[in-house]
Each structure stands twice: as structure tokens, then as C-alpha cells.
Amino acid sequence: MCTSKIKICIILLMLISTGCNSQVFIKITSLPKDTPENARIFLVGSLNKWNPGDPDFELKKDSSGNFTMQIPKNAGTVEYKFTQGNWETSEGDENGNKLDNRKVVISEIAQTIENQIISWEKTVAKKNTASDNVRVLSENFNIPQLKTTRKIWIYLPPDYSTSRKKYPVLYMQDAQNLFNDVTSFSGEWKVDETLNQLFKDGKPTAIVVGIENGGAERIDEYSPWKNEKYGGGKGDAYTEFLAKTLKPYIDKTYRTLPQAKNTALIGSSMGGLISFYAGVKYPDKFGKLGIFSPSFWFNFKDLNFYLNKNVKKLKSTQFYFLSGTKESEDMVSDIQKIIPILLKKGVPATNIRTKFDEDGTHSETYWSREFGAAYLWLFQKYKQRFSSIYF
């Protein structure tokens, strides 16, 4: 009897102990030899909006001299990497080049995830790669809907100044990454080089308006709905700016073809989410949507509800969806769930194109590679004149 009680007590103590210590730790067990003696190490990733110097995600030395930090349980699939406080001091691969994001699934189970930092990414001086027909339209373009300003870039076709033609317009998010390596986060899309080459090949080109993201405000402005962990909620105001302030200004100032059928929105990741939402909300303004690696996961339930309740006519809108099959667990499936809703809303199947690549990554390199094909498909009324190499 006494023995049985002792066993029960021991089991209860073990259960209590397990519950109290079911913590998840990130640990770094080795650092590159060139790591500064007093270096501060930070975790940057999907847990903290990719802030490379977030003080709440700084690792501290434990009793063994290893850098360690506790992270939230039940976080699901987490992408991350390490820095010394900024993107210029991000960890690298064995050759000191850019390292792909680490991935781990965080559950309720207690675990310690050990990491080895092989190198710090080599600092390479970036060059100005913007073409002569790219310029800054405004350093501080007014956004009354958000009570702020933003830097706006513009690309004009090579024959803009020597012709009297009117041109289609592409509005693109994250302008820092579109034209110039100097301003890019991790390489540029080469939008100007691609369109300039298409012009040389005799293909139709367009005006491109790039809107820089707001840095720390990017997530808030690129989602119409709030995510409990990451924020959001200013997307309605941002899309109203695109439709009611920026587009009218561009149409008034430049020789454009202002109809929705000649106006595109293109964006990637959170930029893909907000471009899709803006196109659905304002189909009379934006009739062509290039949705690259969209972050539909951010508010999928809200997005699904909005699409089902939306009464705007989308039958003339074109949708080009792009994603790598291994970018995340649910990106491709989320896109596939959206398509039946669009078809139900009257969008012809011929107006929807999906392209899923096994080698596709969540990166400017991938989006740059695919930009030309997406552009040409969206303007498919010229399709018969396009070379097959673009498809």
C-alpha cells in the first residue's frame, strides 16, 4: 500500500516536472573563428517579423559558454537565421555566401535545437544597377490615407520620350528590390533590364511604378486584417492609396492606358497578399494581378471570408499565381483553395494561370527569373507575337 502511494507520488512529480519544463530552447554550439570577442548574437525570423536586431531575440551565454535563448512553444514551422544585429552581419554558408533560412517545427514538446554557425556572410560592395530610364519619381510622395509619405520609383519605356504612344502601367510593391542592387534587400528583380530586353526584341513594354515598403510598417500596410502574432490591419488604407491617390496621379502625369485591362499589380510574399486583395477590391482599377509566393497564410480565414462575400465583378481580371512547391507547407495548397472561389465568382479558367516550380525559393532571385514570363502572360492579347522562350 505504502509502496503504491510512493509510486503514484513519483509519477505525479514527474508529470508536474515535465509540464513545468516543457520549454523550447535555441542553442548555438559553435561560432566562426572570426566572430568578434564581444559579439552579440540575435535570432531573426518569422517569430519576430524578420527584425535582425530585435532585443527580445538576443541570445545569451549560458554556463557552458554557448549562446542560448528560449522561444515560444507551439509556434509551428519557424524560419530563422542568426545575425550580429543587422543584415550586414548575417550568417553565411561554408563559402561565406548567403545562407538559406533554417526551418524547424516547434511543438509543445520540450526540446533544445542546436545550431552551428559556419561563417558570417561576406560583405560585398553593391553596385548601382538601375538603368538610365529608371528614376525616383518622389522621395516623399504623400499617402494621406496613412498620414505618411513614401519613396516612389518609375520606369519609363525606352521610346517614351521619342513617341506619342500611351502605355500600360504596372504597379509593384517593395520598390527597393525592383531596379537597383544598391537598395535591394537580397538582390533585385531586374525589372528594368527585363523590360528593356523585351523592347529590343520587339515586344510591347509598359510603365512601371514601384512603391517602396515602409520598413517596420511593411507588414501592417500589406495586410487588410490583423494577425494576432504579427500585426497588420492597415491594408485597406494602403490599397485605397494605390487606387484613389497614386493611380490617378500617374494617369494624369504620364501617357498611360488607364483602363483596368491595361493596369497590373504585382507583388511577392506579403506584397503578393496585398496586390491580390487590392485587385479583388478594385477590379475596375486593376485588371491584371501577378501574385508571387503570396503570404495567404497570414490571414487565410479572413481572406477566404472576404472572397466569398465580395460582390465585385472579377470576370475580366487576370490572375497569375507563382510559387515554389517547397517554399512552405501551405503556400501552394492555399493558392489551390483560392482558385475554385474565383471560378465560382465568374472568373474564366483561361484568366487564371498557376506556375509551381520545384526549384522555386522565397527569394528575389526566383521572382526575378519569373517576372518576364508573368508580365508577358498578363498582357496576353499580344501573346501570339511572343517568343516561346518566355513560356
What does this entry look like structurally?
By secondary structure, the chain is of the alpha/beta class. It has two domains: 21-120, Sandwich (Immunoglobulin-like), CATH 2.60.40.10; 134-390, Rossmann fold, CATH 3.40.50. The chain contains eight helices and 19 strands. The protein has helices spanning 2-20, 191-200, 218-221, 235-253, 270-281, 300-309, 331-344, 364-378; strands at 24-30, 41-45, 58-61, 67-71, 76-83, 91-92, 102-106, 111-116, 119-120, 134-143, 148-155, 169-172, 207-211, 226-227, 231-232, 263-268, 288-292, 318-324, 352-357. An eight-stranded mixed sheet has the order 10-11-13-12-16-17-18-19, with helices on both faces. It has a seven-stranded mixed sheet with strand order 7-5-2-3-4-1-8, with no helix packed on it. The chain has a two-stranded antiparallel ribbon with strand order 6-9. Strand 17 (288-292), helix 6 and strand 18 form a beta-alpha-beta unit. Helix 4 crosses helix 5 (270-281) and helix 6 packs parallel to helix 7 (331-344). It is globular and about 70 Å long. It starts with a helix and ends in a 13-residue tail after the last helix.
